[in-house]
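Continuing from the previous page of notes. For each protein in this section, the sequence appears first, followed by its structure tokens. Read the first protein now.
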Amino acid sequence: MNAAELGHVIKEARIAKKMTQSQVVGNFITRNMLSQIENGNALPSLPTLEYLAEVLDLPDILDFSSSSSNESSRELSHISDVAAAITAAKKAARSCDWNALAAMEDNYPEELSDEFEALLAKAFLALARETLDEPAAAAAYLSKAVAYSDRGLYANATVKAEAVILLQKAASSISVIEQDTL
């Protein structure tokens, strides 16, 4: 049950008991707080939830606190995973560990796609520079650099331009190698 659903249940119970907000809150919480809870704009603390359950005769509402804490715990775990992912990516970029950054390509958090795509564009460009003596490998890295440099909030025309220029050089090198082998 989310905050809006909980608020709706509390409001319906209050109305069914023909009580005003002031009558429900007594001296325990403010009427404004109850209004925020009923409108789904605030979640009650456990003592407040217990108080409301007693006043409004809603013993089942206490089940909300355990499901809510499970949801909160999952959400906090996800936030922690996202923070760890971007921290690892930044660390790899700062230390120029482009292979480590490239390895994150398939499993970065969707909510950080803009940041990861910008970092991946730079990583693949750097890997291409390191493999210019292997034109096919460089071309594969450069294709990815071009694609990532053109995406998201941090699209980078400079990275794209450099990658395109190097990609043309790599393509020329591949053509020369193929002609020599004929």
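Done with the first. The second protein uses the same format. Note its length before scrolling.
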Amino acid sequence: MKKLSFLIVLFLCSIAAAAAERETDSLAFCNAEWTVTELGKGATAAYARVEMFDSQQSISVIKYPARRFKTRFVHTPGEYAGTTSATAIGEGAEMAINGGYFNMKELVPCVYFRIGKEVFSLTDSSEVFRVNGVVGFKDKRGRRVQIKSCLPDQYQEVTGKWHSVMATGPMLMSGYEILVPEFAKTDENGNGIDSFNDRRHPRTAMGYDRYGNICLIVIDGRHKGQGDGASIYETALICSFLGLTDAINLDGGGSSAIWSNETGVLNHPSDNRAFDHEGERVVPNIIGVF
């Protein structure tokens, strides 16, 4: 029954959000053979390989009601950094996804990142081209999740009363509206050529729907013919197919990883260049669900 309800919600939301655009892709997404695992307390994990966007997409989703869980950032920088799954297990989380952009050499965040009153990092100038939003929690228990557009000079204004916040981006959706263009930069033939936005890579995203559910999403990439990866616009479309009202992009590439106690690593991380569940990258922070 959980599998049926998950697919019905996907179908109805995708038709509402994308009937006039990419309808073939939205139907392929909804009609795919989703493997669904119940995680307890209304949470589900789902995985499917879908032929869409003229490519092979390998998509993992964890969906859970925010009111029944505690969601928080887990910060483990430098020598304390670990893979998403190892950090989640060590902290006693039930579900987790990799977090935000970071300095790969020092294993510390390179974007604005605050927990309580402690600011761990500011947004580096090299990240401004893609970091135009924030994800955070208004309350200490992490049940009031917030995703907002926010530029670096607006952090205090937008997030001053939040308990914790992390800058990231690009913003993908707000109020059901997709915020990113199909192509950020095109060549003379109209083909997207922007390396970060338009090329297909592994992607990680987070969003919520109007029913109070949080969605954690990973799209595999760098596995040609098995998980081709998605552009930023295609990532936003997948969020719309899930019926999300608001969504934001997190760190992707080799960092992309999603895990639960029941499934283990659900996606196929790309750092080991094998289409398996073993190629996780060490990261300095995750979003854990408890």
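What the second structure shows: DSSP finds five helices and 20 strands in the chain. The chain has one domain: 2-289. We return to this in next week's lecture.
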